[in-house]
Amino acid sequence: MIDSHCHLADAAYADDLEAVVGRAHEAGVSGGLCVLACGDTEEAARGRRVAGLWPDLRFAVGVHPHQAHEFAGREADAVAAVKAALSTAPGASVIGEIGLDYHYDFSPRDVQRGIFRAQVRLARESGLPVVIHTREADDDTVDIVREEGCGKVGGVFHCFSGTEPLADQALSLGFLVSFSGMITFPGAASIRAIAARVPADRLLVETDCPYLAPVPVRGRRNEPAFVVRTAEVLAELRQMALGELDALVTANFARVFGPRPDAQG
Ligand SMILES: [Zn+2]
User: Which residues line ion ligand 1, judged by CB < 5 Å?
Assistant: First the structure.
């Protein structure tokens, strides 16, 4: 099983990281993607500890839309910071999470768009996949990905909580769609309906931990082992065996985020 999006280098795991990683392995979670915030040196240091404990985990780094205001009017600096973080984070070869969040609006929207576009362009130029965070910003997100020609490098629309048209556009751009513990929440019928019909070769599951723990552990600190519960619900929705779903998400993850030939030699 794969946890395609976790924040294991978050301070929430500083005290018991070994046990958290141990429980992930016991639950059969063999790999995944650990997402780091660009420029957070404390998190980067914890990330090296995560990498030491879990060598098969991949790493992503990017300027989150909430953080975009730190680089207002300085797109080139944001790109330089991401490049620097990619070169120092262990095995980082994914840009994310990046995107637009018009729900919280923690950064002005034009600033968010500028920083997102610059990172999408960097991804295309460097041939790296992206992890996209988008909330209440469907049209602008899709426009920027399309205009910057990012479909070729691909990636994932993570923690999908959007509309059916957004899912269709993500798919037509060639992206994967990842579902979190949200699909286990009673109020999430519309997301479940989308999760049931995303093509098999485009599906991923994730925790987005430490947030969004699935039912029945909802409200607790989330961790990679709990992705199995989300996968069980998704398998049920799609009327397939859990092992079959596991094989699908493992193959999809490896295809898009697996080691690149140019990274090995
Ligand atoms: Zn995240």
Answer: 208
Ranking 45-54, 142-151, 167-176, 213-222 by mean pLDDT, the lowest is 142-151
Q: Model's pTM, two decimal places?
A: 0.94
What is the pairing mode between strands 57-62 and 203-205?
Answer: unpaired
The CA–CA distances, whole Å, from 104 to 107, 122, 194, 250 equal 8, 25, 24, 32
Which is it for strands 2-6 and 31-37: parallel, antiparallel or unpaired? parallel
Residues linked to residue 133 through DSSP beta bridges, in sequence order: 99
Q: Which helix (H) or strand (E) holds 99?
A: strand 92-101
Q: Residue 131's pLDDT band (boundaries 50, 70, 90)?
A: very high
Say how many Å lie between the CA of residue 211 and the centre of ligand 1: 9
The CA 215 to ligand 1 mean position distance, Å, reads: 19
In this predicted structure, the answer to whether residue 260 has a pLDDT above a threshold of 60 is no
Query: 265: CA distance to ligand 1 center in Å?
Result: 30
Amino acid at 45: A
Q: Using alpha carbons only, what angle is made at residue 4 by residues 86 and 39, rounded to the nearest 5 degrees?
A: 30
Q: How far apart, in Å, do the first and last CA atoms of the chain sit?
A: 27
pLDDT band at 264 (very low <50, low <70, confident <90, very high): very low
Please state, in angstroms and rounded to a whole number, the distance separating the CA atoms of residues 265 and 75. 31
Retrieve residue 113's tokens.
């768009």
Q: Band of the pLDDT at 92, cuts 50, 70, 90? A: confident
Q: Phi then psi for 185, rounded to 5 degrees?
A: -80, 140
Distance 125 CA to ligand 1 centre (A): 24
pLDDT value of position 88: 86
User: For residue 34, what are the contacts with CB-CB under 8 A and spacing of at least 6?
Assistant: 6, 7, 8, 9, 47, 50, 51, 57, 58, 59, 60
